[in-house]
C-alpha cells in the first residue's frame, strides 16, 4: 500500500489510516461518460476499495472527444464493460461492480443503499431528481456535477444540508432529457476531477466540502464563480426528508 499510494501518503494529514478508510469505502458512480470517465479513473487510482458503475450505453465515436476511458477499438462495446476493464488494469486492488442499466424508481434504493457515497455524472434532470429523492430517503451524501458547452458546475449534497431541489428549484421541472449539446472535452474532465476531489475529501475526512456552495467554471472568459445556497424550509423534496 505504501508504495502505490506514496503520493497520497505524502499529503498533509493523510495517514495510513486515511488510506485504509478509502480502501474500505464504496462509491456508486451514476454515468460513465465525460464526467464519469474522469471520476472513475481518479477514484480507482486513489485506492477507493469498491466502485460501482451504472451505465447502459455503448461507446460511440462522438464519445471519444471527451470520454477518456474509451478508445477507437471500443466502438460498439458496452461502456460499463470497457470502463471496468480499464479500472481493473489501472488498480487491481479495486473491486469494480457493473450495473448495465439505468437508475430508475424500481432499482434506485437497492443500488444506492450499498454504497457510502454517490456521484452524479448523468446528463438529465429525471435521473437527478431521482437521485435527490433516493439519497434523501436513505441519508446518503452525493456529489452533483454537470457540463454543457464551455460551462460546468459542481456541488456536494449532505443529508443534513440543502438538497439539489433547494438549489435549482423550478429548474428541476424542465425538459427531463434535453437535446444533445456541444461540450468542450476538457471542461467535462475538469468538472469530473472536481467531483472526484470532493469524493476523496469526504471519504478521507479532510478539507472543506462544497456543501451549500455551487462552484461554476466558464471556459470562455476562464472564470471560476462560487454561489452559496441554503436549505429551503418550504422545499417539497427535503422538508419531509423523503423527497
TrEMBL record:
<protein>
    <submittedName>
        <fullName>UBA/THIF-type NAD/FAD binding protein</fullName>
    </submittedName>
</protein>
<dbReference type="GO" id="GO:0005829">
    <property type="term" value="C:cytosol"/>
</dbReference>
<dbReference type="Pfam" id="PF00899">
    <property type="entry name" value="ThiF"/>
</dbReference>
<dbReference type="GO" id="GO:0016779">
    <property type="term" value="F:nucleotidyltransferase activity"/>
</dbReference>
<comment type="similarity">
    <text>Belongs to the HesA/MoeB/ThiF family.</text>
</comment>
<keyword id="KW-1133">Transmembrane helix</keyword>
<dbReference type="InterPro" id="IPR035985">
    <property type="entry name" value="Ubiquitin-activating_enz"/>
</dbReference>
<dbReference type="InterPro" id="IPR045886">
    <property type="entry name" value="ThiF/MoeB/HesA"/>
</dbReference>
<keyword id="KW-0472">Membrane</keyword>
<feature type="domain" description="THIF-type NAD/FAD binding fold">
    <location>
        <begin position="5"/>
        <end position="237"/>
    </location>
</feature>
<feature type="transmembrane region" description="Helical">
    <location>
        <begin position="21"/>
        <end position="44"/>
    </location>
</feature>
<dbReference type="InterPro" id="IPR000594">
    <property type="entry name" value="ThiF_NAD_FAD-bd"/>
</dbReference>
<dbReference type="GO" id="GO:0004792">
    <property type="term" value="F:thiosulfate-cyanide sulfurtransferase activity"/>
</dbReference>
<dbReference type="GO" id="GO:0008146">
    <property type="term" value="F:sulfotransferase activity"/>
</dbReference>
<keyword id="KW-0812">Transmembrane</keyword>
<dbReference type="GO" id="GO:0008641">
    <property type="term" value="F:ubiquitin-like modifier activating enzyme activity"/>
</dbReference>
Amino acid at each position: 500500500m505504501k508504495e502505490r499510494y506514496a503520493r497520497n501518503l505524502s499529503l498533509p494529514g493523510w495517514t495510513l489510516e486515511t488510506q485504509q478508510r478509502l480502501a474500505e469505502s464504496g462509491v456508486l458512480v451514476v454515468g460513465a461518460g465525460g464526467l464519469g470517465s474522469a471520476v472513475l479513473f481518479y477514484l480507482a487510482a486513489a485506492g477507493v476499495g469498491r466502485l460501482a458503475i451504472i451505465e447502459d450505453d455503448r461507446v460511440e465515436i462522438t464519445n471519444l472527444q471527451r470520454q477518456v476511458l474509451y478508445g477507437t477499438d471500443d466502438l460498439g462495446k458496452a461502456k460499463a464493460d470497457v470502463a471496468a476493464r480499464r479500472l481493473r488494469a489501472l488498480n487491481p486492488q479495486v473491486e469494480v461492480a457493473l450495473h448495465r442499466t439505468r437508475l430508475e424508481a424500481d432499482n434506485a434504493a437497492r443500488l444506492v443503499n450499498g454504497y457510502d457515497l454517490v456521484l452524479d455524472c448523468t446528463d438529465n434532470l429525471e435521473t437527478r431528481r431521482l437521485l435527490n429523492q433516493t439519497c434523501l430517503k436513505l441519508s446518503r451524501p452525493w456529489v452533483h456535477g454537470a457540463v454543457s458547452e464551455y460551462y460546468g458546475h459542481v456541488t456536494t449534497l449532505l443529508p443534513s444540508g440543502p438538497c439539489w431541489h433547494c438549489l435549482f428549484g423550478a429548474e428541476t421541472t424542465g425538459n427531463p432529457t434535453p437535446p444533445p449539446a456541444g461540450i468542450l472535452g476538457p471542461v467535462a474532465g475538469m468538472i469530473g476531477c472536481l467531483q472526484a476531489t470532493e469524493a476523496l475529501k469526504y471519504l478521507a475526512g479532510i478539507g472543506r466540502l462544497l456543501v451549500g456552495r455551487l462552484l461554476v467554471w466558464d471556459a470562455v472568459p476562464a472564470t471560476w464563480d462560487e454561489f452559496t445556497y441554503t436549505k429551503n424550509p418550504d422545499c417539497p423534496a427535503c422538508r419531509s426528508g423523503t423527497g
